[in-house]
Write a structure and sequence with these properties.
The complex is a heterodimer of chains A (about 300) and B (about 375). The termini of chain A are far apart. In chain A, helix 9 links the parallel strand 7 and strand 8. Chain A has two domains: about 1-175, 3-Layer(aba) Sandwich (Rossmann fold), CATH 3.40.50.1980; about 185-305, Rossmann fold (3-Layer(aba) Sandwich), CATH 3.40.50.1980. In chain A, about 40% of the residues lie in helices and about 10% in strands. In chain A, helix 3 packs across helix 4 (about 85-95), helix 5 (about 145-155) runs antiparallel to helix 6 and helix 6 runs parallel beside helix 10 (about 285-305). Chain A contains ten helices and eight strands. With about 375 residues, chain B is mainly beta. Chain B is about 10% helix and about 50% strand. Chain B contains four helices and 17 strands. Chain B has a 16-stranded antiparallel barrel with strand order 1-3-4-5-6-7-8-9-10-11-12-13-14-15-16-17. The longest helix of chain B is centred in the middle third of the chain and has 11 residues, at about 215-225. The chains are: A alpha/beta (about 300), B mainly beta (about 375). The interface between A and B is large, with 64 and 64 residues.
Chain lengths: ~300, ~375
């Protein structure tokens, strides 16, 4: 199919001119590509980053500038998550539709309230975002708000597709409501589980599930785990409650392995966002998968 | 950690800090770069003297101006033999609302010739720019002028640009528009892990062409300039050609963990002045490899050489400088870097060539800098 070839070429950074009618979407992270695909499946969607990449540290590469040049809308997280690269990308692409304040630049974190906003931040606190924790993409309660706002924005950009977009928006909301009910049940069995994490990548989902992030391997947000911090972790009384070390696929596994060796705790390396594996290639499936893995370890810990 | 009652906390979080944030957003982004060093020995064609010193201390303000323009102001404080100089390195506006991916920049800014020139010095992986840049572009050429950039509507990245500058910061002369440049840049990703960019630039220095009677006097002083006051290029020619190539590798494109950067440029300048024959040219190149092997650590090596013609009245003296650098850098966070570098110089026609160890820090606070390619 010509369209599939287009998408494949885009993924390789060798993207081709989009068909005249299709909306061209630049998704900063794969989770927003997933939402865009749910609402406008015919759009030409370019995903700038993958689950293997730390979204804080992307470079404004030539391929990304070329993709941004063509975009009708960029769907990004905001809240300073992409502060290191998105402004440079927007400036170099000189796309007048994708500029701050224009409908073509959509920030998902601006649609919802964020966890832990700060009146005062300085860098001695680490890479803390004043707006709050931007990793909202696994929050079952916040995503429906994002989808409604994104649908409104897409309708504004492509009014002729309004009926189709609204229909898919309702379908998505119904599916999500059913999924959420299922996750709520699963959460009942997870209450009381404590995990060690690295960064707040899974933070919103863990809070929703009432799973405690008792330990963070990062000494400060955004700083890689250091030897001295890891030795502090070993003597942290909270470690006694921890049943699992949970890190994301883009992170260095060595600090988690070291801690696991010291404590005999199991490690889970899970995708921080949607990837191309069949069990995690949409947000709903990813959340299913994450809850499955957490439940597995909860059960193992109960039996152990 | 507390378990949140979602609804109540959401309401509280939404209302409380919002006003403070909004007020802040009207302030421009401010960033300050602190750059200091200790250098064991003086070296040839260097902007950094022996002993303790400050490098490129920078204060930068940037902000959208309205929905059509954005602007940036960068002031640089540099210390030269006990005197502190304040210099405006950038003071420009750029359009954000032009059709066809056009952008216009006006004011004072860094020329986009070559790969390194448009980058700020503090983004570099080595303490100083390659010798050929220090000789032909005064490390980084910036001037008052106008730029037009266009991204071509092709599936890959292809940018073309043209600039016109006053030219007074490259060499002295009477032309109103002393320097023209044209440049083009292409690039893309080969796979998820490999990306590249190639560029070609041409710079026309109209103030060099024969007929400006007293030009050679300035060139006589050229050699003294780079030790002292001037930031202009010590060596110029009417035509300057630059080709550059950059290739980067990061497993799965995750440059946070690991990244290898290979880059190189070749510079060639001819028509040096009215006495120059076709054999009298400046020519140089460098190649650099930098491997960031952990989030906080990188090592790098760079070799560069430049062959120059030093003007003496109606004839030229040959000069040559070969330079090898090895460096180790530690970046505790994204905002702090400490670098240890060893530089070996091998020279012909330079008095000050030497080997040296340099310890440098580059620290930034304020707005988050951009991760360019």
């Amino acid at each position: 199919m010509a369209f599939k070839q287009l998408v494949a070429a885009t993924m390789l950074g060798l993207a081709v001119m989009p068909a005249q009618a299709a909306l061209n979407v630049f998704a900063c992270e794969p989770e927003w590509a997933d939402l865009a695909r749910a609402l406008v499946p015919d759009a030409d969607i370019h995903t700038a980053t993958s689950a293997q990449q730390d979204p804080h540290y992307i470079e404004a590469r030539p391929s990304l500038i070329a993709a941004m040049r063509r975009a009708d809308i960029a769907v990004c997280t905001g809240a300073s998550l992409e502060a290191g690269w998105l402004p440079a990308l927007i400036s170099r692409a000189s796309n007048r539709d994708v500029q701050p304040g224009k409908p073509g630049l959509f920030f998902t974190a601006e649609q919802v309230s964020l966890h832990q906003p700060h009146d005062h931040v300085d860098r001695s606190m680490g890479d803390v975002h004043p707006e709050g924790d931007p990793h909202i993409h696994l929050d079952p309660d916040r995503l429906p708000v994002v989808v409604d706002a994104l649908a409104d924005r897409l309708v504004a950009l492509a009014p002729s597709d309004e009926n189709a977009i609204r229909l898919r928006q309702r379908q998505w909301q119904v599916r999500w409501k059913l999924d959420t009910a299922r996750w709520r049940q699963a959460a009942d069995n997870l209450g009381g589980l404590s995990v060690a994490v690295q960064h707040s990548t899974f933070g919103y989902l863990l809070r929703w599930l009432s799973v405690e992030s008792a330990i963070d391997l990062e000494p400060k947000p955004g700083l890689p785990p250091s030897a001295s911090h890891l030795s502090d972790v070993l003597s942290d009384p909270a470690l006694a409650r921890v049943k699992l070390i949970l890190i994301a696929t883009y992170q260095d596994e060595r600090p988690a392995r070291w801690l696991a060796n010291q404590t005999q705790l199991p490690i889970e390396v899970l995708p921080g966002t949607v990837n191309d594996q069949p069990e995690t290639d949409s947000l709903a499936e990813l959340i299913d998968h994450l809850i499955d893995r957490l439940a597995h370890h909860q059960k193992a810990a109960d039996h152990g | 950690m507390k378990r949140f009652s979602m609804g109540a906390s959401a309401v509280a979080l939404a209302t409380l800090p919002f006003n403070a944030l909004q007020a802040n957003e009207l302030n421009p982004d401010v960033s300050v770069i602190l750059d200091g060093y200790y250098k064991q020995n003086a070296t040839a064609l260097s902007h950094r003297g022996q002993g303790f010193g400050l490098g490129h201390t920078e204060l930068s303000l940037s902000s959208p101006i309205d929905n059509l323009f954005e602007g940036r102001l960068t002031a640089v404080l540099e210390d030269h033999e006990g005197e502190t100089e304040l210099e405006l390195e950038e003071a420009f506006l750029q359009t954000t609302g032009m059709p066809y991916n056009l952008s216009v920049r006006g004011g004072r800014f860094l020329s986009q010739v070559g790969y390194l020139n448009s980058r700020h010095l503090h983004e570099d992986d080595f303490v100083e720019r390659p010798a050929v840049y220090r000789a032909l572009l005064g490390s980084h050429y910036f001037d008052d002028g106008l730029r037009l950039n266009l991204l071509l509507p092709v599936p890959f990245y292809w940018q073309i640009g043209a600039e016109a500058f006053d030219g007074g910061r490259l060499s002295e002369g009477d032309e109103d528009i002393g320097v023209y440049t044209v440049n083009t840049r292409v690039g893309g990703d080969l796979t998820r892990s490999h990306s590249w960019q190639a560029g070609f630039s041409y710079l026309n220095n109209r103030q060099i062409q024969g007929g400006h009677g007293d030009d050679h006097d300035d060139h006589d002083h050229g050699d003294h300039d780079h030790g002292g006051h001037s930031h202009g290029a010590g060596y110029t020619g009417e035509n300057l050609y630059i080709t550059d190539l950059v290739w980067k590798w990061a497993p799965d494109g995750n440059n946070r963990q690991q990244q290898l950067t290979l880059s190189g440029e070749y510079l060639y300048a001819d028509n040096l002045n009215e006495h120059a024959t076709s054999d009298d040219v400046h020519e140089g190149w460098y190649a650099s490899a930098v491997y960031q092997f952990a989030p906080q650590w990188s090592v790098g090596t760079r070799y560069g050489q430049v062959e120059l013609k030093e003007a003496h009245g109606d004839h030229f003296h040959d000069q040559e400088l070969k330079e090898t650098d090895v460096m180790l850098a530690w970046s505790h966070s994204h905002f702090s870097t400490v670098r240890l570098q060893y530089t070996h110089q091998d020279a012909d026609g330079f008095d000050q060539a030497d080997n040296t160890v340099i310890l440098q820090y580059v620290m930034s606070f304020g707005a988050h800098g951009a991760h360019g390619f």
